[in-house]
Design goal:
The complex is a heterodimer of chains A (about 160) and B (about 750). Chain A has about 160 residues and is of the alpha+beta class. Helix content of chain A is about 30%, strand content about 20%. In chain B, α9 (about 275-285) packs antiparallel against α12. Classes of the chains: A alpha+beta (about 160), B alpha/beta (about 750).
């Protein structure tokens, strides 16, 4: 069984509860954000647009970062959660070069850190802190089947219910 | 890509805190320093010794958040004397188990090294930041002695009290004020929703708070109610659910807010003209006979007068005023009246215009026309209940009038809030009599009130300014005495009544012991009262008061050890207005207000145009973001939140910016007759060309707030003091500024 995040841009309201819940849960140092909401603006007045994207590690099935890591610091749990072992990490930055989403971050110790999908919570049967905090259910976490089902239900609802 | 706002920050981590504490290397020092700043590298000096941290197993405590006025229920996990995590209480309806960014950041107030750690007494000039440490006894003796001296010389009315309005301590602070014998009690509502409160009272017979049933609505109109960026957690969740469920959202605002970005239709209406839009909608709804006739006949008063009054307010008339095409207004009016249920939120803290009460009344009347009151998907009368009290001895008779003209000049404004923005002028002019002492409880008027220079001038006339607060706020920086209060995580509080479809009661409970020498405000008030000879009014402990308040429910404080919430057995079903007592003079919803008429005001919601923008100037709009709250340093001086948004920017339409040669990200000048300052320009497509916008709550002047100090500009510096003649709200939207590049004038 593997896990993944689902993000629904239609629901994200840029409230940053996910970011702060992550920091609270994982005690992430200032200047480093394992999850962050990125805003993308477009259009021209009076028809502008604002889109929000909450980004963290995707915990890829085939993590490029893990393949690129020369010291074997990056590993993957059987449930798909990708972790970095700071005892082995040398801070070379190959992982960030390899990651298509620029997820790996480097804190004041110069070593790589990133979202750990709150695995201590997962191991207790809880959701990651960001998902738990999301006010609008824009974030979800679970098996690919469960995520696909949420997505399908929402798509169906938007077709049927939209004004 | 545009930034949310400018960013930066430094932090103390909980882990570092725990580690340092456990090592026991730190001495209990800190507090307001004579240097005026708190170098973060001296953090270890600010930490409590290890002896204060008891060994303790993990445990859960249900409490109530206090990062903003919304008071969400929280579930706090503590271990070893520290707070480990804070999440929403799933049984409490404000949070529904979820907390916003602010709520999630509360531990960074608890562990903020900038906290006021012990009482301090001013030694230098007011505002110079020179203090000496005092013991509680010394500080309390000093304050009590000074208050009694002022009371003796100038009368009790020369003491004014300001308090944040959503505190569970409201009844006890008011008890203190009444025991003092002064009428001058204020909350911040004069700069907030006071006109909306008066609109509710004169139209519906009482203030209905935030009782809008978004979740069940199919058509939602928001007139500048930027729900997704407000503190109203449950409204955020309900509005999001309504949109996901297919409700149509029509949003009117000169600015493309987050809420606008989620709306089906964004209408960049000309600022201050919402009522023209609303009146034109009424014209269409009444003219086409689309109103709910049975509801109008049974439950409302003044429909005939309204129908006649509405005659000339056509969509074509409104088009010329609002910049919204008549056909669009007409279509929206028809959609609103024919989609059920449809609801228009009456607003909360609007930008503010002199006609604010009538603007809010107009929106309430719109809801009444389609009959959607006290029904699912409409606005409704929240159900409350009565909590108990410990009966105080008879209060001294108060003969003096309030200094803000309530109720003489403002007969409809509740004295339980008053008009705080009028207080500085009253102090300066000693009109109608001198105010010599000001007690500020967890409020930051220096940033929250308009025209800061005027407030500082007023503070300088005071013989005593006492601030009870957690952090050294701007107001605290100008105080004579600062008395440190503990955070919500370090104390019990009186119970919170949650009015709603079915009323509930929650209790704030202590999670960890108060840090440093901080104390509960109840302890502070009681100690002051005892020293002032009015101790009889506080002849009980806080637990006694909590239990007295809970007694009508048949429970005691211990109930909340096991239960996350107390729920009444009243059915949450909304069944219309049948059998309900409406507290207006006619006993009906008053489209035509008898109360307004009796007090010499316009009884129908007549349109008054906003002031014209002077040539070469722009209307300054202000508002909020979801990570900060008002002027409360708990969010601005918070590492987690400051990191996301540490500085405000001035939103300028891209065409306007091009005309002025302003480039995105550069610092530009903004000025008017009250103030001048530099602010970062945010060149954007998300605002009308004739208005500029800045986030409220920035520009802190207290160097004690090391994260927030000096970052951004304070919108209130540019806003003139005033009052809506009916509801008293400060017309903050009537603010105009000049903007220009460095060296371009």
């Amino acid at each position: 069984m593997t896990y993944q995040f689902l993000f629904d841009a239609d629901r994200c309201i840029n409230c940053r509860a996910c970011e702060v819940a992550c920091k609270q849960q994982n005690d992430v140092e200032t200047g480093v954000r394992w999850r962050t909401v990125v805003e993308t603006d477009g259009g021209k007045y009076p028809t502008p647009s604002r889109e929000f994207l909450s980004l963290a590690c995707f915990h890829c099935s085939r993590p490029y970062c893990m393949a690129a890591c020369p010291t074997g610091a990056i590993s993957q749990r059987p449930d798909g959660i990708v972790l970095n072992d700071k005892n082995k990490c040398i801070g070379c930055g190959y992982c960030i070069m390899a990651c298509p989403f620029a997820v790996p971050l480097f804190g004041s110790d110069g070593l790589m850190q990133k979202c750990i999908a709150c695995y201590p919570r997962i191991d207790k049967g809880l959701e990651p802190a960001c998902v738990h905090a999301c006010l609008t259910s824009a974030l979800a976490f679970g098996t690919p089947e469960a995520m696909a089902e949420i997505k399908r239900e929402r798509t169906a609802a938007s077709i049927i219910l939209s004004p | 890509m545009n930034s949310l706002c400018a960013k930066s920050g430094i932090q103390i981590s909980r882990r570092a805190f725990t580690k340092l504490s456990a090592l026991g290397t730190a001495a209990a020092l800190g507090g307001i320093s004579t240097i005026g700043t708190y170098p973060m590298e001296h953090l270890n000096r600010l930490i409590e010794p290890a002896a204060a941290i008891p060994v303790e197993e993990e445990r859960t405590v249900y409490g109530i958040c206090e990062m903003c006025p919304f008071n969400c229920g929280v579930k706090v996990t503590c271990e070893g004397g520290v707070v480990k995590s804070i999440e929403g209480n799933p049984k409490e309806p404000h949070s529904n188990g979820k907390l916003c960014a602010r709520g999630n950041a509360a531990e960074q107030v608890l562990y903020n090294p900038n906290r006021v750690k012990y009482p301090v007494i001013r030694t230098g000039e007011r505002g110079a930041g020179e203090w000496r440490r005092a013991t509680w006894d010394e500080a309390l003796d000093h304050v009590a002695g000074k208050l009694n001296e002022i009371k003796g010389t100038y009368g009790p009315e020369s003491i004014a009290v300001i308090q944040f309005p959503t505190s569970m301590m409201v009844p006890l602070v008011q008890r203190f004020q009444k025991a003092l014998g002064t009428p001058n009690y204020f909350t911040s509502l004069g700069n907030c929703k006071i006109s909306r409160v008066v609109a509710d009272i004169t139209t519906l017979g009482g203030h209905i708070l935030n009782a809008v049933d978004f979740k069940n609505a199919k058509y939602i109109m928001l007139f500048g109610r930027n729900t997704f960026e407000t503190p109203a957690n449950s409204s955020v969740q309900a509005l999001s659910a309504a949109i996901a469920g297919g409700a149509k959202l029509v949003y009117l605002d000169p600015r493309f807010t987050v809420t606008a970005s989620k709306a089906d239709e964004w209408i960049p209406i000309k600022p201050g003209t919402d009522l023209a839009f609303v009146l034109a909608m009424m014209h269409v709804i009444i003219g086409r006979g689309l109103y709910d006739e049975a509801f109008i006949n049974t439950y409302t008063y003044g429909f005939e007068e309204l129908s006649e009054f509405i005659g000339n307010y056509t969509p074509e008339w409104a088009e010329g005023i609002t910049d919204v095409p008549a056909a669009q207004i007409e279509r929206i009016a028809i959609e609103f009246a024919t989609t059920q249920p449809a609801v228009a939120h009456p607003g909360w803290h609007p930008h503010g215009y002199e006609n604010e009460t009538q603007i809010r009344r107009g929106i309430l009347i719109l809801n009444a026309l389609v009959g959607n009151i006290n029904k699912p998907g409409g606005i409704f009368y929240p159900r409350g209940l009565s909590l108990g009290d410990i009966k105080p001895p008879a209060y001294p008779e108060i003969t003096a009038q309030r200094v803000d003209g309530v109720p003489g000049k403002y007969p409809l404004v509740p004295a339980s809030h008053g008009l705080w923005q009028l207080l500085p002028d009253a102090i300066i002019n000693e009109d109608p009599y001198p105010i010599k002492a000001l007690i500020v409880y967890r409020s930051n008027p220096l940033l929250g009130m308009p025209d800061r220079n005027r407030i500082i001038e007023a503070f300088k006339k005071l013989d005593l300014l006492v601030v009870i607060d957690i952090l050294p706020s701007d107001t605290a920086w100008y105080a004579d005495v600062i008395l440190p209060e503990c955070t919500y995580l370090e104390r019990d509080d009186p119970p919170m009544l949650i009015p709603g479809k079915s009323p509930k009661v929650a209790l704030r409970q202590k999670c960890v012991e108060p840090m440093y020498e901080s104390k509960h405000s109840f302890w502070i008030l009681k100690a002051l009262a005892q020293r002032m000879g009015i101790g009889d009014y506080f002849d009980f402990e806080l637990d006694d008061y909590i239990n007295a308040q809970l007694s009508p429910l048949g429970i005691t404080k211990e109930y909340f050890n096991e239960n996350a919430i107390w729920s009444s057995d009243i059915s949450p079903e909304l069944k219309g207005l049948e059998g309900m007592k409406i507290n207006t003079p006619t006993g009906k919803i008053e489209l035509y207000s008898k109360k307004l008429e009796a007090n010499g005001y316009e009884p129908l919601p007549a349109f008054v145009p906003p002031k014209e923008t002077p040539s070469g100037m722009f209307r300054l709009l202000h508002g909020h973001i979801a990570v900060h709250t008002h002027a409360n340093p708990a969010t601005f001086d918070n590492v987690y939140l400051n990191e996301i948004c540490s500085e405000n920017e001035l939103w300028i339409n891209s065409d306007t910016a091009m005309d002025l040669g302003i480039v995105n990200g550069e610092y530009i000048w903004i000025e008017n007759e009250l103030s001048k300052g530099k602010i970062k320009a945010k060149v954007t497509e998300q605002i009308r060309p004739d208005a500029v916008f800045m986030l409220h709550g920035f520009g802190h002047v207290s160097p004690g707030l090391t994260l927030a100090y000096g970052k951004g500009l304070n919108d209130n510096d540019f806003i003139k003091v005033g009052a809506d003649p009916i509801g008293g709200g400060c017309p903050m939207g009537e603010t105009f500024v000049r903007i220009y590049k460095e060296g371009s004038l």
